[in-house]
Amino acid sequence: MIEIIAVSVISVLAFFAGWNARERAAARRVDQILNDTTEVVKEHIRENIIHIKIEQEQGCYYVYDMDNNTFMGQGKTRKELEDTLASKYPGKTFAAEHSNLVEMGFADVNSK
User: Fold this and answer.
1) Looking at the domain assignment, is residue 26 inside a domain?
2) Torsion angle of alpha carbons 20, 22, 27, 30, nearest 10°?
3) Closest Cα to residue 50, out of 100, 93, 106, 99?
4) 57 is in which domain, residue-wise?
5) What is the pLDDT of residue 105?
6) Using one digit for the tens of pLDDT, what is the confidence trace for 24-81?
7) Looking at the predicted structure, is the pLDDT value of residue 110 above 80?
8) Which of 71, 74, 64, 61 is nearest to 104 (CA)?
9) H or E element at residue 38
10) Per the domain annotation, does 83 fall within a domain?
């Protein structure tokens, strides 16, 4: 009788230990997948986003790359400027600082 109880208790303990080990292994795998996905997304962002600065002079907007201050395009209106950048840099996304967008009149002071 004692043997049956001991085997039952050991079986239950082994079941819960195995279940716990499986849960930890699954959590580690999910964390690894999330970290890998995060790195892929960060790399995609680094490759496809260009940080820009917009300047206005004599009714014309000029765009410069913030990293190396190179000229990227110009336009008389926001739409023309966006079209120019889209045609010269297909598949890229452009990001300007909020204060720069407000200064150029492209964004509201309260929006963010």
Assistant:
1) no
2) -170
3) 93
4) 50-104
5) 86
6) 999 999 999 999 999 999 998 888 899 999 999 998 999 999 989 999 999 999 999 9
7) no
8) 61
9) helix 2-48
10) yes
> Does residue 89 form part of some domain?
yes
Instruction: Give the separation between CA 45 and CA 47, rounded to whole angstroms.
Output: 5
* CB-CB contact of 85 with 71 (8 Å): no
Residue 111's pLDDT is 64
Structure tokens at 60: 């014309």
Residue 85, domain member (yes or no): yes
- pTM of structure: 0.62
- Tell me if residue 61 falls in helix, strand or coil: strand
Number of domains in the chain: 1
- Alpha-helical runs (H) found in 49-70: none
Contact 51, 57 (CB under 8 A): no
- Say if strands 49-57 and 93-96 run parallel, antiparallel, or are unpaired: parallel
Q: How confident is the model at residue 1 (pLDDT cuts 50, 70, 90)?
A: confident
